[in-house]
Each structure stands twice: as structure tokens, then as C-alpha cells.
User: Fold this.
Amino acid sequence: MTTPVLEIRNLHARIEDREILKGVNLIIPPGEVHAIMGRNGSGKSTLSYVLAGKEDYEVTEGEILLNGENILEMEPDERAAAGLFLAFQYPIEIPGVATMTFLKAAINAQRKARGEGELTTPEFMRLVKEAGSQLNIDSDMLKRPLNVGFSGGEKKRAEIMQMALLKPSLAVLDETDSGLDIDALQVVSKGVNALRDGQRSMLVITHYQRLLNHIVPDVVHVFADGRIVESGDKELALKLEAEGYANYGGEAA
Amino acid sequence: MRPNFPVRLGAAEQALIDQLKSAGADQAAERISVAGLPTRRVESYHYTDLKMLLRAIPALGQPANEASAPALRVPGAFNLMIANGVIQNASTAPAGVIVGKAQGGVLTTRDDVLVHVNNGLAKEALTLTLENSVDPVIQVERRIEGEAAHVADALKVFVADGASAVILETFSGSDAAHVGNHATYMALGKNAVVTHITLDLSARGVSHFATNEYHLADGAKLRTLIIHAGAGLSRTHLFPHMGGAGAHADVTGLNLVSEGQHADITMETSHAVPHTSSQPLFKSIARGRSKAVVQGKLVVARDAQKTDAKFMHQGLMLSDEAEILSKPELEIYADDVVCGHGSTCGKLDEDSLFYLLSRGIPKAEAETMLVRGFIAELLDPVEDEALNEALQGVVDGWLLGK
Assistant:
């Protein structure tokens, strides 16, 4: 059996005294796209932050294996270099740091961590131009400070562009559809689908089925009260859309 | 304020009194012998207690016969130098620049001990008359060389109507416990446009004091950038006087302090006539056990209607022991103005840091990026590429040095 890209075993995590993840188990084989659906407050976003290594969360039990390697002891930057990418629900605005400068620093840092040489400026510019053109990102946008004053759509496109440039083995998309109109949703989905290459795996977190019409998942998981309570194929998403999350206990948020 | 009891004078005060008397500045000497150096009980020195901080005044500087390396090289700049108070011969000035000398100090009388001392001790002033727009950056190097010395020097700049210039002053010298007291007087003619940058790169043992006085005529535009990145103790006074309608000043400054350093920027901008504006923006970055101070006062005269002025100081604490002190003051006599002040202070933003880390950027590099981003607002407006790069280099050097 091939090594899964992501394997989560009995993951428990808490923030301060509140336990949010209560035994998550999940296996994503290479090339598969899995969706996690659940109502607000069920712990979906916490899962994405815990995967990426945000300090505020304390993992109390369990393991996260990325390509067979336990990443729990790794810093967020080491996880990124190991192939994990988190597309943020709310990308952070960073004044004073030009988007271009940031992209170059990120790409070269990851290359360095993997023992590869840094890109020359022309090589870098060519890659950025290529990735940008597919997502309608022009050079003016790249000169602006990172995410500052970007519209909701621009922020999400910028996230997908980063993903295209960083070529992760696992991409976690946290509520990538939030704040997008239909046109923007299509651009973003097209960008994501272009990165499905049979090897790269994705974990798509959403509470609407609508995104999954565009990014069609192989497996759909239902998340409730800090764990996965049901898994199925893409039909499960349609069923959820029709019936809501009421069957999975807890109160509507 | 004259206390009616004798003040106990310390060694520094005694030395100052003797030096002022020997220079014939009896009045200034008298002031110090009566009041002493200002303590925290004097409002404008509340956070920079000179009596505590300035324990010794070295002998008055003698002409230098050795020179340290230039503090900052800016390719293409026209260089002038004042070493130990003595104006050095300069190379041929660019078109439109007249270089000269004048007797004595340059500052307008003001009730401040550092101003009194400069006016009392500065023997000659370097004068620059800018008749039209000057292309190269004008760099005035002020150095204190050799054995520990007390040096007062002065620069006077006249910028003609419609002229423009970028003037950089750098402060540096040998590695001794100097006390420098530097004065700059700048008069901007109608519609003149000036960027004035002062950069302290003195050694740690130095106490650096500077007073910059600006007079803006109608439509004049001034941008200042004060950078404290050297001396153990530094204080720069900024006194912009908005004297003509349409005058605007972006008064900016940056305190960079590490373990054991104390840096203070004290500004008092006076809006004297209607329709003037100013945008004071200061930033302080403190690490180790250090102290950064910014005091900013906006004074709006009774006639100065339609004044538009907003003071802002943003502090970034890189350690738990650092102190950043902020004192905004508004003194407004007109009734139809828009004036404000703001002050923020905090650590690096955790969410921003996590975002950069999550893209694979290692922590130290991510922190440096965020700090650079914090300062960008001050450096970006410096349009001359070579100068901008040189200043960025100074900031990077500070960030990398611990």
C-alpha cells in the first residue's frame, strides 16, 4: 500500500481549557481530494490550524503524519517545507511587505530547507507571471503590500497563486469559498483544479455544498463536535445540503 | 522656572558652566548654575532626565587630526563635513549650491538648555544657500574624532523660493564618550520642497543631542526623517514653524534602541497662520532593556484656522524589558481646525507571524520582514534610490546586530 499523503490518528487538541478536536481520524491517499463539511463551530477551522502548527492550540493526543512523517514536533515553517500548505479563510494583511518580496522569500526559504538552490530573479519572475496569469493576477497587484486592500476575491486568488508556486503535497483549503461571488468562485476553483495532478492531495473545508460543485471531492466527511462522524462519496454533500446538519447532533450555530 | 533654593551641581554641570564661561556665554552659564540640568520634574525632560543621564561632559573638542571611516556612503552625493566643530573644505559644489560660513550659533532663542549650550559654544556655522533645485543628495557629515570631546556645531540652510533638495546629515566619529550638540536651522522659501534626513550612527559611548529648527513659507513642503541608531543616549528636538499658507510638513522619525540605549525625539510644531498642515509620524523599536521616547506637541495659534495636523507614534516592543514612552500634546487656540493624536504600542503581530511561517519562511526571517514592513512607511517616501538603499542598509544592520 502506498503511504497516504495525510494520516491523522486519534487527534485531540484544545485551546486553553476547551477541547475542540476530540479524536479525529483521517486518511488521504495521494491524489485524492477530501472535503470536510460541518456547521460553524464544529472544529473544522481548528483542524486546519492544528495541521499548520498554530501555537495557540495544544495537541493533547494523537498523531499527524505527512507523507509518513510525524509533523507534530515541527514548526509551521518546517511543515510548509515538508509539503503542507494552508489556504487561509481570512488571509492576513501585512502592511509594508510587498507581495512580490513575500513570494520570493517563501519560495526560496522552502527551496533552501529542501536543499535546493535559490531561484534567480528572472526564473522567479517567469514563474510568478505564469501562475498569476491563470488567476487574473497582474503585476500591479503583486507590487502592493501583501493582502492589504485586496478585495475578498483578490485575497483568495492570491492564496491559490501561492499554492501554485509552492507546490505542496497537501493543500488544506479553509473555507476558500467564503466571501466569493460566483465569478470569483469559478476563477478560484479553476485554479485549484489545475493543481490536481493525481499526486497532490487536498483537504477542502467548507460548510456549503456549492464549492464542491466546482471542486469535486473523492470523499466527503461530516465533521461534528470535534470529530468525523460520517464519510461517504460526493452524494453525501448533496444529502447534507438537503437535510442540514441536524442529524449529527449538537445545536445549530 | 527658577527654584528659589540652590541646586546641587554635579560634575557635568560644573564642566558645562566652565565651558560656557570660557566661550563668553555668561547668561547660559548662569542659567545652569541656578537651575542645573533638567530633571524629570521639568515637563519636557520628564522621560529624559539629563541630570541623571548625563554624568560627565568631556573637554571642548579640538580640531581633529585623524578621521574615522565615513558613517554612510551614498553614491552620487555631494559631501560636506564638520569635524569637531570645524568646517572642512569641500569639493566644488553642484550648480545652485553656495557653501559658506557664518559666525556663532544658528538657533532661535528658546528656553531649552541644549539650545542655550549650542548657541553658546558653536563658534561657526556651515551655511548652505540653495538657489534652485539641487539634484545630488547633499550630505553633511558631522563627526567627533579623537579623544572624548564636547562638540557644538551648527548648520544653516536657506532654500530659495521654488527650489528643492534632499539633505542628509550623518553623525558619527571615533569610539570615545563624546557629547555632541548639533544645531540645524533651515528656512524654506515659497513652494520649496525639502527632504531632511538626520541619521545618528555615533558609537554607543556617545551622548548625541540635536536641534532642528524649520521655517516654512507659503506652499513649502518639508519631509523630515530622524533616525536614532547609534548613540547610547540621544535626543533630537524638532521645531517646525509653519509660517506660510499652504505649507505642509511630514515630520517623521525612528528610534531604534537596543540594550542600554535611550533615544528621545521631542517635537513641537507650531502652526502660526491659517491653512497649514502637518503629519507627524514616529516609530520606535525597542529590544533588550532600552528606552524610546517620543514627545509631540502641536501648537495652533489663534489665527491659524483650517490647520490640519495629526500626530502619530507607533511603538514595537521586541522584548519584555523594553520601554516605549509616548507623550502627545495639543495646544490649540484656533476654533476651526482638524487636529488629532494617536499612539499605539505592541509586539509583533502573532497572526502575521504565523501567516509568514505557514509559507515556509523561518521565524527569524519572518520577524525581520515584519519589522521592515513596520518601518516601510518611513523609508518608502525617500525617493533617491541610492539613499533609500543606504538607509535600508542601516536598518537591516540594526536588525541583524543584537
